[in-house]
């Protein structure tokens, strides 16, 4: 709260800078303001102005409290079940550079409010189930595979593949589809990209739904790739660890980078060992991928773990993830995304975080929540990392329903 006193002879209290969004919660045992009788330096007229100001602030606070209570009452009424499976009504490929071409698709209502889904990894690609978080009668649902992922080409390509390239790609896709502005939905790495995109283009974003917050800071990477998460999943960690010789285990991201890119390997010099080199690269990719797939759910999910058996999926997932992580997400500073929250503070946002997320532990969502208290913050008590876990999925659907209701209240139709 910003309350300033103009130290003139009249002792006038200036409340014009006050913002009700920043009014702290009042502890019942204490008063927000001291007794007027304890302010001898303030004139009688100043005390009257202060009294009026306090009354106005109290009235605003009551209004805010009632509004928040109304929102809480409405929240249980929001739909929380996934929508039925649907098929795209349109799809295509967009050439975004001399090298890269992106797969994109649209489903739902062609005249609905646009929402773009930013997948995780990076490198994971999209899947048909991603469409089910959105009301297909209200939303125009846009999915696309980021550079090198899914059906985008070239597959697993790292050249000209950075966060800033992806942000440019999102804008090119928006313009290609003739969309003036859209809602942005992203989880895990998708939350990283959603934050970076919205901070770069805040006027193009009508709302944000973020899940499994990943700010790509060193402590987050160290937690997952340097032994922190191993304390919870030692059985899954040991194959990941044992693939790397002991003398390289001080930096697993770098050690895997050498193998995923087949750099500095003696076998690379000999055509005779080309097949072996490729097999070695796929082996590294599968082990990297399985480590994440085995830790992504609160309860083991065999279907998710089996993704690590796919050569195509694991190669793109592991190579692109590792490429981004060894380059620190191509972000200029460790706290870049938190440092730029002011640019997007005005955007209506819902943050969904599984309490037992091991891949993207809650410390990052908590840091984002503290930096951005205006955003709705939902902690799912019985979920890990995956968007497909029942608790996470329910809150993600509800978040989109909430933003849908806000858009409707503001006159957005879905003809």
TrEMBL record:
- Residues annotated as domain AB hydrolase-1: 114-389
Indicate yes or no for the key word Glycoprotein: no
Top-level EC class as recorded in UniProt: hydrolase
* Keyword Lipid metabolism assigned: no
Q: Which GO terms describe its biological process?
A: proteolysis
Catalytic activity of the protein: Release of N-terminal proline from a peptide
Localisation:
Cytoplasm
Q: What is its EC number?
A: 3.4.11.5
A GO CC term attached to the entry? cytoplasm
Offer an example of a GO molecular function term for this protein.
aminopeptidase activity
Q: What domain of life does the native source organism fall in?
A: Eukaryota
Keywords, comma-separated and alphabetical: Aminopeptidase, Cytoplasm, Hydrolase, Protease
The record's principal subcellular location, in a coarse class, is cytoplasm
Q: Identify its protein family.
A: Belongs to the peptidase S33 family.
- What protein name is recorded for this chain? Proline iminopeptidase
